[in-house]
Amino acid sequence: MAEPVVIWGSGAIGGTIGAYLRRAGRDVLFVDVVADHVREIAAGRLHIEGPVDQFTTGGPAVMPDAMTGQHKLILLAVKAHHTLEATRALAPFLAADGAVVSCQNGLNELVIADIVGRDRTIGAFVNFGADYQEPGRITFGGRGAVVVGELDGQTTPRIQALHQTLRLFEPAAVLSDNVFGYLWGKAGYGGILKSSALTNDTIAEYIADPARRPLIIALVREILSIAAAEGVEPLGFDGFDPRAFMRGDRVAIAASLAALAAYNSGTGKPRSGIWRDLAVRRRQTDVTAQLAPVQAAARRHRIPTPLVDRLVALIQAVEAGRREIGGELADELGDMAAAAEGVKV
What we know:
The chain is an alpha/beta fold. The protein has 2 domains: 5-177, Rossmann fold, CATH 3.40.50; 181-338, N-(1-d-carboxylethyl)-l-norvaline Dehydrogenase, domain 2. The protein has helices spanning 12-23, 35-42, 83-90, 109-116, 157-166, 179-196, 203-208, 213-229, 242-247, 250-265, 273-279, 287-300, 306-319, 327-338; strands at residues 5-8, 28-31, 46-49, 55-57, 61-62, 71-76, 94-102, 121-126, 129-134, 137-142, 146-150, 174-175. The longest helix has 18 residues, at 179-196.
């Protein structure tokens, strides 16, 4: 009999994955800090809606303080800035031979491994679009890449089993020997999403706007230069071609941006979760936490990151109510990018 899957953080990402696993017949335990959401799931009223799929499911669901037992597989799906607290909370319930899988945005595997051990940490990359709307209601806006891999790149029985489990959600899920390549690729693409949240444009509108191209190119190249210094080969997905940006190939960059605009225009999630946190939910984003390891790596290699640093500062200013979302914020960051050496429009 398959081991039960614990979903720690049952919002947009975790709730969507867990709902699919539950519908496929897997034993799933949902964990979340929102009491009303937990009650809806436990009552069988977890609604997945949107252009991809619509169905209702549910299953055992608890808040962290009601958690018991020892579990071999925990999918962690909280925001990056909650990783430390959540990992400490789940650690007592992780079996000695178990593993935590980071179904998050950012390089959170590094934080998780420091707490539960590298041998009990599995890397994962997710790029599908989903939004938590209200307790028991999640919009699944669009499919995207799902990748898993051992941190050391080995192909183990547990990673093969996890891969098969995630295929119940995303049939095209990938088992990779370079999961950090995908995570650094997402860091580069994530720069686009984060900077788009400075505006009220949709992601597709932002990417397609010629006025934003110098900023996009400079920001992505700045982030990917750090990956190169770390000895990581960033990998592409869903239209994003990191090699094009790293080479400065204008034709290939234009093709990648066109593909990304098309990918994002065909989704039920038109804006990033970061924009939603700022504009709709009026709460702190995980931008600072996501970019902290990128900045730390840059400092180790003595690589300046003026655009990343300013992007973080602008997001923090919006979070604190000192600035308002609008095109002028992206213009401000774009002015820095326009002066960056080697950027071609």
